[in-house]
Each structure stands twice: as structure tokens, then as C-alpha cells.
Write a structure and sequence with these properties.
This protein is of the alpha/beta class. The protein has 13 helices and 16 strands.
Length: 414
């Protein structure tokens, strides 16, 4: 149930902005937030010249927090890359302390390339659920590097954030100020007694996911789905922070390809380890292991491969045996670290709707190569089960849940 608490007490909104170039915008945002009966703490990231507006945290304080003691005048002598790294480091530490001290209920930042880098770096240190808004001239592009695994809302500034206020950016900045105020003034209640289970998901596994959801809720669990490509790091974070405390069911694992280089070397972190590290029940199913996404236009090296358009903007390429072998090795290395009850369940008739017999990405030989490598690489304490079904067969979801409830019960008994 949502509870609006704006009438109870003012909220503390942190504004990160460069006051040497964006003084009018900062003042407009500040006044808009204060008009909603909330307080504003301005963190000034100026690095070129003196600020145009009074702040609560100066550039000199930010630099000092980052271990750089030459202040704004010293920052002005550095190249923009180094200066932005120092600013991001210092702002992050200040924001972390404000949140720890109960002086941050929401955070908003306005900026271009440098401002977006600094503002979102600080936002990514805050827990999921803390309101975060970045008003950015970069927001119409790829935001993955800025958002990461966090719930950062990107507002496209439309106009560049330079030269003061105009009829376009006034409305956008007012919208952002009203939004962060409203978000900070919302509280929620939920049943903390129900254990929460995180489930990785794809749209092509929708029927299975719904069956899993229904089975979990019937047994008193709460269910949360995370996209198999983009939600994995968020799930890891929520597991490690104790929010997801009932277990993890990894049905969709294609996102692991993003952590592997073309030669099978590890280029990223996360995935398949958090549940085991926390001792939670963990089920792993190789949903989508037979395919991975590529950008449009399809890169030339994939055009002679088997591929299929899941939708007009998402081409999926069939994974070869040479790509599946390092994936299996990678999975074993992660799964074998588990300190909790863990089970791997293999649907022998295919890992996706497109990879089943008769489908556009069918390759049973590559699948069996993957299965053999995975099976041989798992430690004996990891339960391993092969099922003569396709991953989308209704009965397969029942088997997943039978095993999950079994290992969850074993954990409770221990």
C-alpha cells in the first residue's frame, strides 16, 4: 500500500550541479523543490571558475573528500577526464555520508557529459529504491554506462544545459523537480515476513515464469522477476543486501554472455554467485544459453550464422559449440563456489522456443556439447538433473518448483 507522507515533514533533496556554468538552472530547480515544502542541499561540482550561487557543499570540499587538496583552482589546471574522476570520487563519498546520516531522501542532478558522469556515479552508490533523477543532454543515447544496475531515471533535457533558462528547459526542469519531490515523499509498506525469491526471466519464457510465480505465492513466498539480460546485476545486489532473501531461480541466463569475451575470457563480474554466497536456495536452468542478442545492423561476422529477429530491433544469434563451451566453464566456476543448496536442471529438448526442434535456431549437437561440459565441470555437492523435456513444456516448471521447494526445505532443516 502506498502512503503519501508529504504533509508530515519536509524531505531532504540533494542537488548535484556545476554552479559555475549552471547557476540559473540550479536556482530554478532549488526554488521548484522548495515550493513543494522540501529542503535542498546543493553539491557544487564547479571545476572551471567561481560558482554563481551559494551551495552547501563546495568544490573544495568535494576535492578534499577525494584526497585532492588543491581545490577548484587546482582542478582547473587538470584535464577534464582527471577533474571529472576526482569530482565523481568526492561527490560519491559525500552522498554516501549524507544518506548514512539520514540527510538524503532523494537525489537529482543536471548536466551534460561531465555532469552526467559525476551525478550518476554518486547515484549508483545509493540503494535501489532511493529516488534518483538525472536531467541530461546525454539521455537520448545509450545510458547503460550511467544507469548500471540502479533505478536511475534519465530525463532528456532536450536543449543543451548551457546559457540559462528558456521556455523549453523551464518546463523540463520543473517536471524533474516536481518528480523528485513527489518520489521522495512516498513511503511503502510490505509484508516483511514473506521471503522474496528472485527469478530471471525472458518474454519467450513467459508461461513458465507465471507458473513459477503462482507456485511460489501459493507457498507463501513473494516473487520478483529480473530480465535475463539486463536485470542480473540488480538481482545480485538485492541478494547481497538481503532484500531477496528467499532464494533465486535462474531460468534465463543469456546475460552471462555479456560477461565473456569472444575468446571466452571473463570481462565482467556478477551472475550466478550471489545466492550461493549468501547460502540461499538456488536453481539454475540454461534458459536462452543457445542464443545471444546482437545490435542492428547485424555485424558482418554474424550474417552467415543462424539468427532470428525476436522483434524488429532485437536479432538473436545462435550460439555455436565453440561459444557454449566457455559459457559452460564459466558457469561451473561460479556455481561451484556456492555455499548454499544449489541445483542445475537441464531441459534436454532445448533451451529456448527458437532452439527447439524445427525452430530457426535449432542445433542439438551444440546443445549436447554444452550439457556435457557443464555436467562434467560441476562439483558433487551441486545437484544435477536432466529432464527429457523442452524448457517451455508446462511440466518442466513443475519440476523446477519441486526441486526448489525440496532444497529450500533442506536449508531450513539445517
Amino acid at each position: 500500500m502506498l502512503l503519501h507522507t508529504s504533509n508530515l515533514m519536509p524531505k531532504n533533496i540533494v542537488l548535484i550541479i556545476s554552479l559555475d556554468t549552471k547557476g540559473p538552472e540550479a536556482e530554478y530547480i532549488k526554488n521548484s523543490i522548495e515550493a513543494q515544502q522540501n529542503n535542498v542541499t546543493i553539491i557544487d561540482t564547479s571545476s572551471l571558475r567561481e560558482p554563481q550561487l551559494k551551495c552547501q557543499v563546495s568544490s573544495d570540499e568535494i576535492a578534499k573528500a577525494a584526497g585532492f587538496y588543491s581545490g577548484i583552482h587546482g582542478l582547473a589546471k587538470l584535464d577534464r577526464k582527471k577533474a571529472s574522476e576526482i569530482m565523481a570520487n568526492g561527490v560519491t563519498k559525500i552522498v554516501e555520508k549524507l544518506y548514512k546520516d539520514g540527510k538524503l531522501d532523494g537525489i537529482i542532478s543536471i548536466g551534460g557529459a561531465m555532469g552526467t558522469f559525476v551525478g550518476t556515479a554518486a547515484m549508483r552508490t545509493l540503494p535501489i529504491g532511493v529516488p534518483k533523477i538525472m536531467v541530461s543532454s546525454m539521455a537520448s543515447g545509450d545510458m547503460k554506462q550511467y544507469v548500471g544496475s540502479k533505478d536511475i531515471i534519465m530525463f532528456n533535457s532536450v536543449t543543451d544545459i548551457v546559457g540559462g533558462l528558456n521556455r523549453v528547459n523551464r518546463r523540463i526542469l520543473a517536471n524533474a523537480a516536481k518528480a523528485i519531490s513527489a518520489m521522495a515523499c512516498v513511503d511503502i509498506q510490505y509484508d516483511v515476513q514473506r521471503p522474496l525469491v528472485g527469478v530471471t526471466s525472458f518474454g519467450i519464457l513467459q508461461d513458465q515464469i507465471i507458473q513459477i510465480k503462482n507456485a511460489l505465492e501459493k507457498e507463501g513466498y513473494e516473487f520478483a522477476a529480473f530480465h535475463g539480460y539486463w536485470g542480473r546485476t540488480s538481482l545480485d545486489e538485492l541478494v547481497e543486501s538481503g532484500v531477496v532473501n528467499g532464494g533465486v531461480i535462474d531460468v534465463a541466463i543469456s546475460g552471462l554472455y555479456e560477461l565473456l569475451g569472444v575468446d571466452g575470457t571473463i570481462i565482467g563480474s556478477g551472475g550466478l554467485e550471489a545466492a550461493g554466497k549468501m547460502g540461499l536456495p538456488h536453481i539454475i536452468v540454461p534458459g536462452g544459453a543457445d542464443l545471444f542478442s546482437v545490435p542492428i545492423p547485424i555485424p558482418p561476422k554474424f550474417k552467415k550464422r543462424k539468427y532470428h529477429f525476436h522483434n524488429p530491433s532485437l536479432p538473436l544469434v545462435r550460439a555455436t559449440a565453440d561459444e557454449l563451451l566457455p559459457l559452460a566453464k564459466f558457469m561451473c566456476e561460479k556455481i561451484n563456489k556456492s555455499e548454499g543448496p544449489t541445483a542445475v536442471i537441464i531441459p534436454l529438448k532445448g533451451f529456448s522456443i527458437y532452439g527447439k526442434e524445427g525452430g530457426p535456431l535449432f542445433d542439438s549437437e551444440a546443445d549436447m556439447t554444452f550439457i556435457s561440459k557443464l555436467k562434467s565441470g560441476l562439483k558433487s555437492n551441486i545437484r544435477y538433473l536432466e529432464v527429457d523435456m523442452h524448457i517451455n513444456d508446462p511440466e518442466f516448471a513443475h519440476i523446477i518448483m519441486e526441486v526448489f521447494f525440496e532444497i529450500a526445505q533442506r536449508r531450513r532443516q539445517n
